[in-house]
Amino acid sequence: MLAGVELGGTKVVVLRAQGQKIIDHRTIPTTTPQATLGAAVDILRTWHHETPYAAMGIGSFGPLQLNRQARDFGVMLPTPKPGWAGADIYAKLTAPFDCPVVIDTDVNGAALAELRWGAGAQGPVPSDSLCYITIGTGVGGGFAFNGRTVHGALHPEIGHIQVRRAPGDDFAGSCPFHGDCIEGLVSGPALARRFGAPGHSIASDDPRWDFVASDIAHLVTTILMNTAAQRILIGGGVGTGRADLLDRIRATAVTLAGGYLPYISDATIASVVRTPMLGDQAGPLGTVALALDALNGIDRL
């Protein structure tokens, strides 16, 4: 029996699984750290009394301290999410349970699940390099290359990359750290501020969507140039909610690539830049992938 916790900025999915199969899950809102993590632990305890866990996987929004040698391992670093800076995610969720645990970002977990069981595993030639982007409350990005998630001094923080702005776009951005980084330009709250109304209420033919498509396409081409990822998956409420926006992103990305990347063209871009094959299960299954790694003694950190 495996346990998983996907901690997002808006909601938390708590689950248990046998192998790759999720057999039970609960969803709770993300409020304060004490209330949210406490509710998650209560659910985990109930299931644990029925069948003890062999391993646990945690995928959380960030930024997180993921260096196991650091004194603040598993702690939330400064974040735009009010009240969550300094929250001890790892200790709170794991203290009641005696089993191996792997913690990573929610998007790294989703990338790993897509690599193993979703978009990375499909087609005549499976992919061994994949980037998973979620655009919703914030903008996050995870990377799974050669079967492993990517870390360095920290984990990837593509949401705070600053991109070249389209001519005529004067939106100042909403990120409290950087203003017009990509999260400050295209996240759900940023779109609400940009449009003066929630993004889902804005007609698809509104010309301001061209600015949004340009911003995301610049992020896509930055990732392609830096990592040569074979797949870039765009998920989240904003990412998957508008097929017309994805088409604009693809067309703009081809233009921005300028013929420099031999694997990017009008004919290939739809196979490279796409929605997650696992859909809204990529995140939950990411925690299962991390739990399986914990069970097998694979420490990704």
Question: How would you sum up this structure, described in words?
Answer:
It is a single chain. The protein is an alpha/beta fold and 301 residues long. It folds into two domains: 2-105 and 287-295, Nucleotidyltransferase, domain 5; 119-277, ATPase, nucleotide binding domain (Nucleotidyltransferase, domain 5). The chain is 36% helix and 19% strand. The chain contains ten helices and ten strands. The chain has helices spanning 33-50, 89-94, 106-117, 182-186, 188-195, 208-227, 236-241, 243-257, 269-272, 282-295; strands at residues 2-7, 11-18, 21-29, 55-60, 101-105, 129-135, 139-145, 148-149, 231-235, 273-274. The strands form two sheets. Strands 3-2-1-4-5 form a five-stranded mixed β-sheet. The protein has a five-stranded mixed β-sheet with strand order 8-7-6-9-10, with helices on both faces. The radius of gyration is 19 Å and the shape is globular. It starts with a strand and ends in a 6-residue tail after the last helix. 47% of the residues are buried.
